[in-house]
Design goal:
single chain, 320 residues, alpha+beta
Length: 320
């Protein structure tokens, strides 16, 4: 991987910038919330995110490609940004636009959430996933959406993708104004020369903005936004940025301390990605971090994971 230039790539802005949407969309985000409302106050004093910058610069110096974006949900200040416009592999994080299209299909009646689908209706994926270990040979589409959101189950994702089709997902992505995001292919055990090289690609800026829009009821409509946010709030992978939250991976959709957390991760060989929303008593943020690295040893992998955890700690300090 080509190294980033930390001096050019990373920045800690102190003035508000538009999030890439229309002004009226920004105003609407201020007034609309999901049923679990975010804090309604300006962000706390600017933090330097010094430890995060140091960790990401270390990754870049080691040859990794890094993309990061953090935005304050209320002030819309871009708190932290580095090469956030660059399109990079995001693995399972690319499932989020698919879930949005599925939720929109349920809401419009184009898809029946209780339609039962056989597991054998798509090719088996043996390298990961939960459903392959279950005895149930068939499940309803809504359960598959839960499996896709909570466990990134590749068979569930592939069935949902086959039901809605790549064309509709692409149209949905375009309709959301995402210019650097694409769901390229289904999950596979092996990728041949005729297959897309990645499951999905995207930019940190677009995914941070997408999660911010989800919790602000700005994705399709309030009902679709709430449904997708609910599915993603059940995600059980809290090992990267989310490791700093102290949340129970299996029961964190209603935190006793009022912490709102919604996230999705993506993992592939040499790829780690996470995007989400973290909101506490003082502030709320939308964030995304993508790291592509040479997975040559466990040391390379742990260095990448450590950078996610450092970001998580500083996000917790920012919001609490």
């Amino acid at each position: 991987m080509a190294a980033l230039e930390p001096g050019d790539g990373f920045r800690n802005p102190s003035v508000p910038e538009p999030m890439g949407g229309a002004p009226e969309a920004s105003n609407a985000r201020r007034s609309q919330r999901t049923s679990r409302r975010l804090p309604r106050r300006a962000a706390v004093g600017r933090r330097s995110f010094t430890a995060t910058l140091k960790a990401l610069e270390g990754l870049a110096d080691a040859g990794a490609q890094v993309s990061v974006h953090v935005v304050d949900l209320d002030s819309h200040v871009h708190v932290l940004a580095g090469d956030d416009h660059v399109t990079m592999p995001v693995a399972g994080l690319g499932v989020v636009p698919l879930l949005i299209e599925v939720a929109a299909g349920f809401a419009s009646g184009a898809l029946d959430p209780l339609e039962i689908v056989e597991r054998t209706s798509v090719d088996a994926v043996e390298t990961s996933g939960l459903w392959r270990h279950l005895r149930a040979p068939a499940l309803p589409l809504e359960d598959l959406a839960v499996l896709a959101a909570t466990a990134g189950d590749p068979i569930a994702v592939n069935i949902l993708l086959e039901k809605v089709g790549h064309d509709r997902v692409r149209q949905r992505i375009e309709g959301l104004g995402l210019r650097r995001t694409a769901l390229l292919d289904r999950f596979r055990d092996r990728r041949g020369p005729d297959d897309a090289p990645q499951v999905a690609v995207g930019s940190a800026r677009e995914f941070a903005g997408l999660f911010s829009a989800l919790v602000n009821s700005q994705v399709v409509d309030a009902a679709v936004s709430a449904q997708v946010a609910e599915w993603l709030s059940l995600n059980q992978d809290l090992s990267l940025v989310a490791s700093a939250t102290g949340l129970d991976p299996f029961a964190h959709d209603h935190d006793a301390h009022g912490l709102l957390f919604v996230n999705k991760t993506g993992r592939d060989r040499g790829v780690r990605a996470e995007a989400g929303v973290l909101a506490g008593p003082r502030a709320g943020v939308g964030y995304a971090l993508v790291v592509c690295f040479d997975d040559l040893s466990i040391t390379h992998r742990l260095r990448a994971h450590d950078a996610f955890r450092v970001l998580g700690v500083e996000l917790m300090e920012y919001t609490h």
